Structure formats: structure tokens, C-alpha cells
Amino acid sequence: MIRLKLIKICCLLTAFFFVIAPSISNALPDDRNQPIHITSDTAEVDDKTGRSIYRGKVKIIQGTINLRADQVTIHSNAQGISKLVAIGTPAHFQQLPEVEKNIMHAFGNTIEYFVSEERIELKKQAKLEQEQNVFTGERIDYDIKRRVVNAYGGTQTSSSTDTPRVNLIIQPNKTPSQDAPVNE
Fold it and tell me: Facing residues of 23 across strands?
């Protein structure tokens, strides 16, 4: 019985990564062909509801994809995986999008990935690092397909200036002359 549940978990997670990996920011082709490594303290799979929950130092690795969280919940339906929710302090998702690019990092106390919409929501202490650009705020929505970032500060409930704000660090584009060494 336990062996059957482990096989179901592996099948579900394999399907999850075959859906997720191709859609995340031009993932490396090798990621989809790599084995999936999952570790957690507990795993609960409910075939009737299409929900599986992994708790306790959850680590999911496939190629350059690396997800770490305190808890990961995977929602599925007849079409496959519909949503992934990772919770941590913070949860961390990373992936190498293309050869010779920097690893993309996404952080948030909650990371929700909507598979069919190809969209990620980072909530509470949200941070997205792409190349050398950094976006921070209380919530960040990232449309993977269109490569659009929307960042939001905290809710203004008083006149306090301590309300978290959106912060962006955007690096200038380098021209070939900026990359060339200076000859003296």
C-alpha cells in the first residue's frame, strides 16, 4: 500500500514538472529530461480531491529547477496540474532560464503558480531577481509568457510612512563600448 502511494506521488510529481518546466521562462531543455528529486518530512496524496501536500523542509529539484518551502500543495484536475502553492519563510523558487543567463530567483512567504495562465504570484516579502534586476514588494505578479512584472506595496491603512513600498533595481543596458576594456 505504501509502495503504491509512493508510485502515485512520483507519477503526480513527474506530471507536475512536465507541465511546469517547459512554461517557465524558456527553461533549459535538459531540465525536462532530468530526474525529479523530492524530499519532505511528510507526503499526503488525495486522489479524490486532486490535492497532494508535502510538509517539512520540502525540496523539489529537477535539473536547474529548485523549489524549497516549508509546505508545498499541488492541485490537479482532469487536465493535469492546475496550481502549485509553496509556503515558507520565505519559500524560494529558482531556475536557470537559458544557457549563459543568470539564475532567476523568486521569493515569497507564499508562492502560487497558476499553470494554465503561466503566472506566478509572490506574496508577503516578495522578491524577484532576473539577471541583475531586482523587484521587491508585498506582492509581485509575474506573467511568465509575456515577461511582465507587476509589483505592489503594502495596503495603506493609516498615514504611517512605514507602509512597505515597491522597490526596483533595474540595471542599464550595456553597449559594446561599455564592455570593452579601456586601452591606455
Answer: none
Model pTM score: 0.71
Q: Which residues pair with 106 in a beta bridge?
A: 93, 128
In a domain, 26, yes or no: yes
Q: What is the CATH number of the domain that holds 30?
A: 2.60.450.10
- Round to whole Å and give the CA distance between 174 and 166: 25
Q: Which three cell numbers stand for residue 105?
A: 530567483
Segment 171-180 shows an average pLDDT of 65
Domain of residue 105, residue span: 2-122
Is 123:142 a contact under the CB 8 Å cutoff?
no
- Within 10 A of 138 (CB to CB), how many other CB atoms are there? 20
Place 88 in a pLDDT band, splitting at 50, 70 and 90: very high
Provide the number of structural domains found in the chain. Answer: 1
Tell me the residue ranges of DSSP E strands in 17-162.
36-39, 42-46, 51-62, 65-77, 80-95, 104-114, 119-130, 133-143, 148-152
C-alpha cell at 89: 519563510
Which range in 9-18, 24-33, 150-159 is most confidently predicted, on average pLDDT? 150-159
Band of the pLDDT at 65, cuts 50, 70, 90?
Answer: confident
pLDDT of the residue at 160: 47
